[in-house]
Amino acid sequence: MIRSTLVLAIAALGFNAMDASAAEVQVAYKGIITQANGVQASAFLPGQEILIRYVVDTSAVDTNPNPSAGVYYNTGLKQLHISIADADVNVSTGIGTVQTFNDVSGTDQAFFYSHITNGLLASMPVIHAEIDFVDEESSMLSNDGIPTTHLPANDTFVSLGTNAGFTSLRLLLEPAALAPTCAEEGFTGTKLAWCKNICENGNTGAAREMWIRRWVNRYHELPACALIDVQQPE
Question: What is the pLDDT of residue 228?
Answer without folding.
Answer: 57
